[in-house]
Each structure stands twice: as C-alpha cells, then as structure tokens.
Design goal:
Layout (H helix, E strand, L loop, with lengths): L8 H11 L2 E2 L2 E2 L9 H31 L3 H11 L7 H11 L21 H12 L4 H13 L2 H10 L7 H4 L3 H34 L5 H7 L11 H10 L10 H24 L4 H13 L6 H12 L3 E3 L2 E6 L11 E2 L5
Antiparallel strand pairs: 1-2, 3-4, 4-5
Length: 343
Amino acid sequence: MPGGHPKAWPHIKDIFQSIAAKSEGEACCEWVGNAGSGHFVKMVHNGIEYGDMQLIAEAYHLLAKGVGLNHDQMAEVMEEWNKGELDSFLIEITANILKFRDEKGEPVVPKIRDAAGQKGTGKWTCLAGLDFGIPVTLIGEAVFARCLSALKDERVVASKKLPRPSVNADSVIQNKRDFVKKISKALYAAKIVSYAQGFMLLSEASTQYKWSLNFGGIALMWRGGCIIRSRFLGDIKRAFDKTPDLKNLLLDDFFVKAMTDCHESWRDVVAAATRLGIPVPALSSALAFYDGYSSDVLPANLIQAQRDYFGAHTYELVDKVGSWVHTNWTGHGGRVTSNAYNA
C-alpha cells in the first residue's frame, strides 16, 4: 500500500510489484496516493482486521457455548464456511488453529489465556474515526473487547459475584444445525459492515486530504498477502467500478441482496446470545449500526432538544434546515437565536 511523493513510484514500482503477493496473476500492490495515504490505508486495513478477528471469536464462542460443539467440530464448520461466501484468510487459519493438538493430543486453544494483546492500529483507526466523525463502531467494539479481555483477574472475581442467565442453551437453540447456519449469516453480514465502515473512513480522509483514493484498487490490493483477504473483495471492486462515488457499500445492489438474505438470522443470533449471556459486542454493534444507518428517523432530535435546554446550543427544525433556533424551555430568560454558531 505505497504512498508518498508520486514521482517516487516509477522508481520503486517494479521492485514492489515483483515481491508483492499475486492474485489471479496481478500484483497486490499499487500506488495509493500522496503524502501519508499509504500508511492511512494500511491503518484502516488493520482496523478492519480487528473487527474481523473479534467477529470470528464471537462466532467461535457461540459455536462452543451456545451450540456445544467440540474443537474438531468447530474446525469442520469453519472449513465448510471457507468454501462459501465467508472464504477468507482468517476463517482458513481459524479452522487450522481449532484442530491443532499439542504433544498430549489436546486442543491448544482452550489452554491459551483469554487476554488479547494489541499493537495500536485498531485504536488509531478509531481515533481517526472520531476525528473525522465517521462511526467505525464495530472496530471500536473490537478494540474495547480486547481491553475487556485484559481484565482477566477482575473478570474471574466478577464471574463469581454477578448474576448470569440461568436459561438452558437447548431451550434457546432448539435446532443446532439451523443455528450454525444463522451464525454464518450473522458473521457474513457483520463482516460486510466492517468493510463498509472502513471504506467510509477512507472516503472521508480522501476528501479531507484530497488524496483521490481509488477504492476499487484498494480492494484489489487486499485480495492477496493481506490478513483481511476475503472472497467479496472482488464484489467491493465491482461496486466501486459501477458507482465510483458510492456513499456506502451497503447501498450497492450486491450488498443490499446480501443483507436481505442475512439480517433476520443476524437478529436471531444476537437475541439468542443475549439470552444466553454470551457477549457479542462486535456482532451486536454492527447490527445497531445497520439499523441506525437504515433508519430514516433517529432519536437525535431529543438529544438536540436536551442540548438546547441545558446549554442553548440551538437546533434546526425539520422544515427549516440551515436555520438554527433556540427555545426558551423553562420560561425564564430571553429569546435567543444564532445564525453564526453551528452546533
């Protein structure tokens, strides 16, 4: 993902592309843009990676604690998923990890301390999202999930003191084979949101910094040699080829169809996880983002009224967008209007 001064690229292009991973005979390396655009694109790649890893971990948790599969069975499920729409590097290696045995012939994963580390690129992505006002909520939850996992000693104490759901998994998940399919659909839908949020951030940064990023080209670069390599990167490329100024991947026909097929299963999985007390922060935050993004009306009007009540921050009326007004909510004080202060 090289960026910097454009005159440098011709001098290093052959070197970079000759050593880069190849996909369908093409080098997964191309000029990104000016200044620090290459670093920024790499950062967002890693942010999406955080989200993907957390989503797969939640699917693993649901398969183990909800469905009751052993590690060999979960590996078989992952291998089957990797033959379809979830085909990706992370699903592939997760299957290998789950079936790996130590010198005693026992699965290794249950012996690993459940406290995840991080190097910071997910956090940087979230900070960039906050700076640009882009809701990379799934990536944020993935970062915080690692922070929560690091509180291992506290969690052990809390697990002995705080009440947990007493419902039996069999009463919540009555058809386990069907539920496994629902988990795959929930995972697929949430992964799409992960990429959609990442490209939203890239788009805003490209606009702010005047990078003119080639989003389709970026998707092609991620097809090989990248941790987030997945089957639908080609679909992302086609979406941007068809509509270069596409506002959000979720608005492309291919992804609309995918969400139409998956969102009910997604809801069932999140609801079941909640009843069973299985934390699914990434799956649920992705669903909340999807529901918020697809809602023509949100309760932010009440937030604007609250802000105006306690701080006279003003608000816009539905039928007078661009005109900021203040209401004298308490009956005390004078009438206030603002034409300059855009809150």
